[in-house]
Design brief:
This protein has ten helices and 16 strands. It has one domain (about 1-340): FAD/NAD(P)-binding domain. By secondary structure, the protein is of the alpha/beta class. The strands form two sheets. Strands 1, 2, 6, 7, 8, 9, 15 and 16 form an eight-stranded mixed beta sheet that branches. The chain binds flavin-adenine dinucleotide. Flavin-adenine dinucleotide binds next to α1, β2, β3, β10 and β14.
């Protein structure tokens, strides 16, 4: 069967592409239902969530973020509040905005214009790899597509714990070159740990962290890798969006907003190909040019991530206090948001 477009992966990136497409579109994911298998803390900017019409999925809006570093606590008052979301609800809301056919199948790779799955092969001129950090389609034609380094690893648990602020511990004793966090979600919180070096044996660290609050790791323990290195946004005839293209922002690990931002642009370009307003080659070039124009910001944030994880904590504190000066913070916050904001 031939489709106008095939999207591999039905999470933030894939659903963002699907949302803007009209035609005979196939969306494939190994999950049995849209919104299964949360991996992330699922926090994004409140205004952004509203712009895409998914505010029903908001669990808690937060306008204070506290950075704990050494013995210092630096309190940031956000001009743009953040919000934690219910992953399943959010994905289903995004899915409803599109008009695609969903297939639950394991994607095995790509051969020319054909996506190979355990439920058969499907053909299209426009193929999107939105399969997350493993980039299953791109990796099947270039096995070194995913760099060995250049990814962080995090896990989190969701105990009943109420909080008003987002709290982050930078380079704490139990996770050097990493962070610990509390993200409140109404009646519960997401407490997590991440290693910028991509270390995976971090569950013990999470156990001792949650113990500080008289808590235990709950049955709901999720997480995974998230890339910190920007990758090629196209490979052969494949469009790559979200973590598969390394579009998660280094340092902050914010990947939802970029996945949706680049996904929207990718979907708009693919629609032009479907409408025969553009050739596939031109569409691939336009998407590539658009994505690559953001590379400099990723390079900057990765350099900052490397510096802040390699200097003594007192220098991290000085840096954070400088950024927290009112005019500096206002400028940096806006610049950061503008990296991947929707009109
Ligand atoms: C612990 C943790 C906390 C995080 N917290 C935040 C946060 O608070 N805010 C934020 O903005 N970002 C956060 N991130 C990053 C964010 O989760 C990712 O950047 C985001 O999920 C990327 O979206 P995506 O759609 O590109 O990839 P993914 O969300 O990884 O989705 C990939 C999809 O592809 C499917 N798939 C993969 N392989 C196959 C296959 N072979 N066959 C079929 N289907 C397949 C998967 O099932 C999945 O649905 C966090 C990440 C982690 C690990």
């Amino acid at each position: 069967m031939k489709y106008d477009a095939i999207i591999a992966g039905a999470s933030f990136a894939g659903l963002a592409v699907a949302r803007v497409l009209k035609g005979n579109i196939l969306l494939i994911d190994r999950k049995s239902e849209i919104g299964d298998g949360q991996t992330s803390t699922c926090c994004s900017y409140e205004h952004f969530i509203k712009k895409i019409g998914c505010e029903e999925a908001i669990l808690q809006v937060i306008d204070v973020e506290i950075l704990h570093c050494g013995s210092e606590d630096i309190v940031f008052h956000l001009n743009y509040p953040l919000a934690t979301i219910d992953y399943k609800k959010f994905c289903q809301l995004l899915y409803k905005k599109g008009n695609t056919q969903f297939l639950s199948a394991k994607i095995l790779g790509i051969e020319g214009d054909k996506v190979l799955t355990d439920k058969g092969n499907f053909q299209s001129e426009c193929i999107v790899d939105a399969s997350g950090w493993q980039a299953v389609l791109a990796s099947s034609i270039r096995n070194d597509f995913v760099p060995k380094n250049g990814k962080s690893f995090g896990i989190e648990t969701t105990p009943i714990y109420k909080n008003k602020a987002i709290e982050i511990w930078a380079n704490p004793r139990i996770m050097p070159k990493g962070v610990l966090w509390i993200f409140p979600c109404g009646g519960f919180s997401r407490l997590g740990i991440a290693s910028y070096l991509g270390k995976t044996n971090i569950k013990e660290g999470l156990e001792s962290f949650v113990k500080n609050f008289g808590l235990k790791i709950t049955e709901e323990l999720h997480g995974g890798f998230f890339p910190s290195k920007f990758r090629e946004p196209t490979l052969g005839n494949i469009f790559l969006v979200g973590d598969s293209a390394g579009q998660c922002l280094p340092l902050t690990g914010e990947g939802i907003r970029p996945a949706i931002y680049f996904g929207k642009k990718c979907g708009e370009i693919i629609q032009q190909i479907i409408n025969k307003e553009k050739t596939r080659e031109q569409g691939l070039k336009d998407y590539r040019d658009f994505a690559m124009s953001h590379k400099k910001y990723y390079t900057f944030l990765l350099a900052l991530q490397n510096i802040l994880t390699n200097i003594p904590n007192y220098l991290v504190v000085r840096f954070a206090k400088f950024v927290n000066l009112k005019p500096v913070f206002k400028y940096c916050e806006k610049k950061y948001i503008d990296l991947a904001d929707l009109n």
